[in-house]
Design goal:
This protein has 345 residues and is α/β, with parallel strands linked by helices. It folds into two domains: 164 residues, Rossmann fold, CATH 3.40.50; 166 residues, Glycogen Phosphorylase B (Rossmann fold). Helix content is 43%, strand content 17%. It contains 16 helices and 13 strands. Helix 5 links the parallel strand 5 and strand 6. Helix 1 packs parallel to helix 2, helix 1 crosses helix 16 and helix 3 crosses helix 4. The radius of gyration is 20 Å and the shape is globular. About 2% of the residues have low confidence.
Length: 345
């Protein structure tokens, strides 16, 4: 069995590396040229090929980058001759798989990302998604009823579970990690203000050490211009970090996305997602309903209140999640089962 896995974002690097390791098959990992994704794959010690470039802004540039990457992927895929594609709604990879009659297993936990869902769901053999997301949402985005494969967990279990169960609990440091919004995503184009970055001063006022990890150089420039950075009161994290190790020993994670919030919560570390769209994050709610320490705030006053409350006594918000994580279904098992259904004869 030959498996092709495609990676675009850092989350997908974690996810696809974990799946490739579990499958133990002959695999090819292709990755779009986003520096953080490439660095993370290198750090994880998996083989990969960089194919195509990442276009963070501009509809024309995104479309041109898409067309270029489709063309470049064709030769790589033809030379590898895979039996299946596994991706997280990669528009280029799914289009190539469809055109070359390769079965596409598409993972997705972000129905609010309308564009990539519409481009990938209708062309996918199977669409794997957390059961927290209403089935109707996936069908409305183009998935067929017979393609849908729900599971009782979240994607982040794939790379957090083994770590949680193998590493002893350690004393937490009074540190806050802040990650701004994914301003280059298609669903956030035109939304320039970062709610996450506006919480830096709130965290600093609590006396915590603050680490900020930008997504793009434009965000890094904004941080460098801040008074707190010039005064040496916050740390700009520019290299790829081991989030599992870091998040397991700090007090709070604040992110403009969802992945790091869920990753931290699975580790038992309080997290706040300040995701800016006014949509329900079903997977976050799923974890919160099961007792994981994760909160959502898309208004500045709510985010400030939560940050102050947690940092007043962060240990009281931390949770021992080892038994809780074990009860969640691992998406690696779901993918392995689907791969086993494919007849390569």
């Amino acid at each position: 069995m030959r498996i092709w896995l495609d990676v675009i974002t850092p989350k997908q690097a974690r996810l696809m590396a974990a799946i490739a390791s579990r499958l133990g098959e002959d695999y090819l990992i292709t990755v779009k040229g986003l520096r953080e994704s490439v660095d993370l794959l290198r750090r994880l010690g998996v083989e990969y090929r960089v194919v195509g470039r990442y276009a963070p802004s501009g509809l024309r540039d995104k479309l041109l980058a898409y067309a270029d990457r489709v063309r470049l992927l064709i030769d790589h895929v033809l030379s590898f001759s895979p039996d299946a594609l596994i991706s997280f709604s990669s528009p280029e990879a799914v289009r190539v798989a469809f055109g070359l009659s390769i079965r596409a297993i598409t993972m997705n936990d972000t129905p609010h990302s309308y564009h990539v869902a519409r481009l990938t769901f209708p062309l996918s053999w199977r669409v794997v998604y957390p059961e927290a997301i209403p089935k109707g949402d996936m069908i409305n985005l183009g998935a067929s009823d017979e393609s849908l494969v729900p599971y009782g967990g979240v994607d982040e279990v794939a790379w957090v579970k083994d770590y949680v169960l193998s590493v002893p609990r350690i004393e937490r440091e009074f540190k806050v990690f802040i990650r701004p919004e994914e301003s280059g995503a298609s669903y956030l184009l035109g939304k320039s203000e970062s709610l996450a970055l506006r919480l830096i001063d709130v965290a600093l006022d609590s006396g915590a050490e603050v680490l900020v990890k930008p997504r793009y150089e434009s965000q890094a420039r904004e941080i460098r211009r801040s008074r707190a950075f010039k005064e040496g009161r916050l740390i700009l994290v520019e290299n790829t970090v081991d989030t599992l190790d870091l998040f397991s020993r700090i007090s709070l994670v604040i992110t403009g996305g969802g992945t790091m919030a869920r990753e931290a919560a699975l580790l038992g570390t309080p997290s706040i997602s300040v995701f800016p769209l006014n949509v329900r994050l079903h997977v976050n709610d799923y974890l919160q309903d099961r007792g994981f320490p994760i909160w959502r705030a898309n208004k500045l006053e709510d985010a400030r209140r939560l940050t102050v409350e947690i940092l007043r006594d962060p240990d009281s918000f931390a949770v021992d999640t080892r038994g809780m994580v074990s009860s969640l279904e691992d998406p690696r098992d779901v993918i392995a089962s689907l791969v086993g259904e494919i007849d390569v004869g």
